[in-house]
Amino acid sequence: MDLKFSAEELRFRDEVRRFIDDNFDTELRAAMARTRTGYIDKHLHVRWQKRLAAKGWLAPNWPVEYGGPGWTPVQKYIFEQEMSSAGTPIVVPFGPKMLAPVIMKFGTEAQKKKYLPDILESNVWWCQGYSEPGAGSDLASLQMRAEDKGDHFLCNGSKIWTSEAQFADMIFCLVRTAKTERKWEGISFLLIDMKSPGVKVDPIITIDEPSLGHQEVNQVFFDDVKVPKENLVGELNKGWTCAKYLLEFERGNAYSGGLKRWLRQVREIARAERSSDGMALIEDHDFAQRLAQTEIEIMAMEMTELRVLSSFAAGQNVGAVSSLLKCRGTELQQSVTELAVDAIGHYMAPFRPLVSGVNEEPLGPDYADGLAPRYLNMRKTSIYAGSNEIQRNIMAKAILGL
Ligand SMILES: Cc1cc2nc3c(=O)[nH]c(=O)nc-3n(C[C@H](O)[C@H](O)[C@H](O)COP(=O)(O)OP(=O)(O)OC[C@H]3O[C@@H](n4cnc5c(N)ncnc54)[C@H](O)[C@@H]3O)c2cc1C
């Protein structure tokens, strides 16, 4: 594979860098330095996303007809790498990355007109209503009901682990519209206004939250919620097809840019820290070997991402390969953050999850601050978007044919 950029690609890289210099302002940088979850305050996400949208860069994977930039795979790669390397905010995925491709493929013309522009402009904020208390890995066991009442559906039930639901204007939900022998056949894909009477969002407070300063997950309750019929996406009782299609986009992320940035940070820490016999940690044989091993694995991840990126056109789903990217990407997120807390050694201990609000100076060097919460927060990545065990089952069937 020839990885040298052409003159035109280098010009594009410079344009991306200029955009970052001009738009990634001090307040956004400070918020990104503090976040351990990847999320920052909603108004800051909106500010960043509107700046991307104004440049036509919010949705690199959308086809041009819907407002995508029409980039080549190499441009997409350059964009991802530059954004990750600078540590810019994520584009909150629920609207642009997850729902939009489903609407493009299964939605009516009216739904495309109504929802896609507001997603692109970050005017309407979405969340994902898939999981339920009794339906996570076994998602098709979901129980939330949507009864046909003529001109509307009447929805009852609840969704759990709903990320960022407290900020959402709308939720896309999988609901049961028929009782069938094969449980995935009676499911439909419904768009629900979070301001509808009968919708209630309860926060789920996790142990790391006080120190993270950001509450992430919720349970959402639906009590006799009326949803207009036109909010059904795709065919009635065929929502499972939409659900699976969306998951491929949810899982098919690029991880290597962010991983490389975190690894650079670990390397800097290892230069500053001493091992038990007084030498720089980076000189320690065992630590240096782990660092090198992780770097090699990240390079392999990057090559895989490039390969996948270059073989798919804009707007196309990557299929079961998304499970491979999700598994490897999240395993590496966990190993890099583990390496970071190993590098700071006992400075991990003053992590203060339960005593937020104290005004004491954090103990230890500045670079140790926040690494323990990030390490703990990354435990989530092998669970959400379908656990890694489930991804291995998918790969075994769909890729290896077992
Ligand atoms: C931080 C976070 C954010 C989330 N955000 C959202 C969101 O916004 N919207 C949403 O809908 N959901 C969200 N989720 C839910 C997430 O998708 C589920 O947690 C996930 O699918 C696992 O389901 P579960 O928690 O019910 O675990 P379970 O399904 O009960 O699984 C428990 C364990 O058993 C293993 N297991 C289960 N079945 C099998 C099997 N067949 N083979 C091998 N191992 C198996 C699992 O891998 C896991 O280790 C989020 C989760 C987290 C942690």
Task: Describe the protein.
- There is one protein chain.
- This protein has 402 residues and is α+β, with helices and mostly antiparallel strands.
- The chain folds into three domains: 7-91, no CATH class; 124-239, Butyryl-CoA Dehydrogenase, subunit A, domain 2 (Beta Barrel); 252-399, Butyryl-CoA Dehydrogenase, subunit A, domain 3 (Up-down Bundle).
- It has 13 helices and eight strands.
- The strands form two sheets. A four-stranded mixed β-sheet has the order 1-4-5-8.
- A hairpin with a 3-residue loop joins strand 2 (145-148) and strand 3 (152-160).
- The structure holds flavin-adenine dinucleotide.
- Flavin-adenine dinucleotide is lined by residues 127-131, 136-137, 161-163, 216-217, 380, 383-384, 386-387, 389-390, 393.
Assess the beta-strand content as a share of residues.
5-15%
Shape: globular
Helix content: 40-55%
Overall pLDDT metric: 91
Low-confidence stretches: 352-356
Instruction: Tell me the structural class.
Output: alpha+beta
First and last CA, distance: 30 Å
Topology:
Layout: H1 7-23, H2 26-34, H3 42-55, H4 73-86, H5 94-106, H6 109-120, E1 126-129, E2 145-148, E3 152-160, E4 170-176, E5 187-193, E6 199-204, H7 209-212, E7 217-228, E8 232-233, H8 239-251, H9 256-272, H10 285-310, H11 321-344, H12 371-377, H13 388-399
Parallel strand pairs: 1-4
Antiparallel strand pairs: 2-3, 3-7, 4-5, 5-8, 6-7
Bound molecules: flavin-adenine dinucleotide (FAD).
